[in-house]
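Support request, please re-run this one:
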Amino acid sequence: MLHGYSRDIHVEATTQIRSQVQPQACGIEPSMSQDQQSVSSEKCGESTREEHSSMKIARTYKDAIHALNSLQSNFASIESRKRIGNTLSRNEESINSVFEFTRRLGYSPADLNRLNVIHVTGTKGKGSVCSFTNSILKQYSVKNGGPIRKIGLFTSPHLKHVRERIRINGEPIDESLFTKYFFEVWDKLSSTTSSPSEFPDLQPSAEVKPMYFKYLTILSFHVFMSEGVDTAIYEVGVGGTYDSTNIIEKPTVTAISSLGIDHTFMLGDTIESITWNKTGIFKKGCPAYVSEQPAYPQSIEVINSRALELGASSLEIVDTDILPADVQLGLAGDFQRQNAALAVKISSEHLSKLGVPSSDLPKFSGSTQLPPKFLAGLRDARWDGRCQIIENAENFKHITWYIDGAHTVESVKSSSIWFRDTVKRRRQIGREVRVLLFNQQNRENANSLLQDLYKSIVDGGINFDHVVFTTNITWSDGNYDPDLVSLNSSSDAVDKMTVQKSLAEAWCVMDKEKGRSSRKHIFPDIETGVKFIKSLTNDGSKVDAFVCGSLHLVGGVLVVLDGKQV
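Re-run finished. Output below.
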């Protein structure tokens, strides 16, 4: 019930009941992840090791994706974890299992030190920091006269394809390489065992696989080690202390980007507890660099104490002003200066450890002098789905898409200000139709994020003619793109579009309070929402469309714009 506002909201009807698609791997029994095993009473994937090894396994990329999707935590198990809470023993079991699975692949933590890892965490901006860093380090490749042969980059989540999470020299590994290494890991974990007394949760070993993110982390280690990567940039998934990436013993440098309140059921609901968890990536004898934290100055005390506790060789709070005022950044948004400054510092530290002479590195005394390779790296950095502008895409003429996957309070504010200011600068004489496409399926503060967006954009002088809310289902036939299957949302809420109706209702209230009247629309999938936006150009109008609220939404929009349904 929309409490009196239903006439202002258009809800797209659908005759097909939308249900979450359960992944089915051809020739592969879905395996139990540790999470599924610990919180679910259902017996799934209980074939014996002999049965498993005798299966005829199809070695295709599609099969690898289906098998990977079977390791996702479903909505029920996530809700159960929230109720149980993350105890210390549970967290320690989680990180210890990553050590054990990696050992069963044949790698010790000491082996992984050969990757020369740069380890980055934070609440917002950590992906951008990794992108800037990767772009800078590419300038120091062997072909450019530098010491680096291959750069590995591990980030999350992906936008369009899972392969985006594992990159070599800036490019996602291709389907054949992903498939090859995916099944090498799958088969090795199926054919090896763990001590029943030490690892009771990993029994029986033939069926139990790491959860989705853990599996991809372990897979990235195998890919990078097998492909001869000699510099690897690792973005933490969640937190730091107990994150799957935190089995690296001797990174060359660690870094923390902007901190904020997020993932509270895992990290705690105070900035102090979140900071404690993030600083868990600090290592003995390793330098640490941290972005300025103007929003949460109390975090600095925790950062200082943890650096001492964990034995960091040095700690520096990076001043954004180390960047020249006129530096060109490949990533849009004023807030990217902070991320770029952090990337400059950690890149310089890493390259120094690789033996690059100081004459070829930045000079930080007085006014910063950046060498040409650093300037080129900052200028050439690209990171899709973050303050990205797409104009006149094929089959979508006359639409300018402003796309950002912001999904935290701080990042939504920053993204909204970027859109508002960019539209004002680019405003033309002709009247553009302005559209918001928004979703946030899994966060309890979704309405609060929408309110922050409204305050930053609408109260800032840019009105939306249409506001569109969709689920994260990719296609109008009710299917997800295989790489975008997500089992961690309530299928009932998706079917009933509960979140979307709540968001539309919240927008109605804000509009009424301000005396405004944008048109609200609810669609059951991304494709239908995008087609509606396209229809607004039928009369020759130009459209500015702002897509925000979720990386899952952004990824789906990019897939639909590509127009290739698998």
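Residues 88-105 form the longest helix (18 residues). The chain has three domains: 31-112+169-224, 116-149+230-380, 388-562.
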